[in-house]
Amino acid sequence: MLSRRHFLYSAAVPAVAKDIPVRTVSKVEQAFKSPGPKPNGLQATPEGLWILDQGDNKAYLVGYENGKVLRALNTDSKAGSGITFDGEALWLASTYSREIIRADARSGATIAKFACPGAGVVAWTKGRTSPLAPPPPASPIVKAAAAAPKMPQQRQATGAHGLEWRDGKLWIAVPPSQTIYRVDPKTFQIEFQFKTAGDRPHGIGWEGKWLWCTDSNLNAFFKHDPATGRIHEKIQLADSDPLPHGMTIWKGWMWYCDDVGVVCKLRM
């Protein structure tokens, strides 16, 4: 028999309907090029849009209108994939070190580090790729390499991809466990958790009381009730749209980034 304590820490898998209502939204717009080569995390704030780049491990604060860089910070993240702001400091998902970092929002200096919950090896072997990515060069060497027998490789363990802050709690989306966690940042203990729609959850963002979660392999966004994890709605992108990684919501617009260097938006 499950104790009350166990119930509080482990929510049941959300009851996902076979036919989730699909929200009709505006056409995806490519807002601007990212200042870094591989944008992977987004967080909207009144001061501007924060971008965490997986390529150069910098956190950029940019303007919404044209992507002008207002601040650029070096961070200790390793292939960072998520970013949020608690009103005083930044939180970064350091994916390949499997850590969550709290960093100074003015200097980028690390304030604290925590082990990422749910870290491990992801379920997929080949995920969806961006339609904007250039095709590999068709050289004889590349063709020979593609035709050669593949040796099994040990896949690297990774951590979180999406972060959000709400009412003094940190929300963390983790692909290896396919789970969203609510964590007390003071103790870094898990208070609540629920499963995601797919196996590659990425950016998360608030629309009122609802928590939206990106799934990069499903090329879609899913609206969760954060109290139960239940999915109530989704936004489905077209195959030709930029691939969603980091995501945030600001004044009726969903912003997301494709890790080929593009920041996009759509009217919700």
Question: Which helices and strands, and how do they pair?
Answer:
Blueprint: H1 4-9, E1 29-33, E2 39-45, E3 48-53, E4 58-62, E5 69-74, E6 82-85, E7 89-94, E8 99-104, E9 110-115, H2 140-147, E10 162-166, E11 169-174, E12 179-184, E13 189-195, E14 201-207, E15 210-215, E16 220-224, E17 231-236, E18 247-250, E19 253-258, E20 262-267
Antiparallel strand pairs: 1-20, 2-3, 3-4, 4-5, 6-7, 7-8, 8-9, 10-11, 11-12, 12-13, 14-15, 15-16, 16-17, 18-19, 19-20
Task: Sum this structure up briefly.
The protein has 268 residues and is mostly beta strands. It is 5% helix and 43% strand. The model is unreliable at 1-9 (pLDDT under 50).
Keywords:
268 residues, mainly beta, Methylamine Dehydrogenase, Chain H, four-stranded antiparallel sheet, 2 helices, 5% helix, globular
Mean pLDDT: 91
Helix content: under 10%
**Integer tally of domains:** 1
Q: What topology, given as strand order, has the largest sheet?
A: 1-20-19-18
> Using DSSP, what is the number of strands?
20
Shape: globular
- Structural class given helices, strands, pairing? mainly beta
Order of helices and strands: HEEEEEEEEEHEEEEEEEEEEE
CATH superfamily: YVTN repeat-like/Quinoprotein amine dehydrogenase
Into which percentage range does the β-strand content fall?
A: 35-45%
